[in-house]
Design goal:
Blueprint lengths: L14 H12 L3 E2 H8 L3 H13 L3 E8 L2 E8 L1 H21 L1
Antiparallel strand pairs: 1-3, 2-3
Length: 99
């Protein structure tokens, strides 16, 4: 019998990373402040999770200035979209197995 837990992506075991990817999938991009407010987490916590997703090439980072203020925004990469979709599919298979 197949072990469906093995199909889950460890990168998305964290609720914060699940939240980041979910927000980015329904938006073309989101800036740091928006992610922080929607997820209700600290700067450091968010930054560490974003860094982990960037290392996996699941998100792209765009740094720019709006007026004189720096602004950092994030978007999912094709690799990230595929990995997250596969993770959600694996979760669905696991849930359906239990039904």
């Amino acid at each position: 019998m197949k072990n469906y837990i093995d199909d889950l992506n460890k990168a998305f075991e964290s609720r914060v990373r699940l939240g980041i990817m979910s927000i980015l999938l329904v938006n073309d991009f989101a800036d740091f402040v928006t992610l922080k407010e929607q997820l209700n987490i600290t700067d450091g916590n968010l930054a560490s999770h974003l860094n982990a997703l960037e290392k996996l090439k699941y998100i792209d980072i765009k740094k720019q200035f709006i007026g004189k203020k720096p602004n950092t925004s994030y978007a999912t990469t094709n690799t990230g979209k595929k990995a997250f979709s596969e993770h959600l599919d694996a979760l669905e298979r696991l849930i359906n197995l239990s039904s």
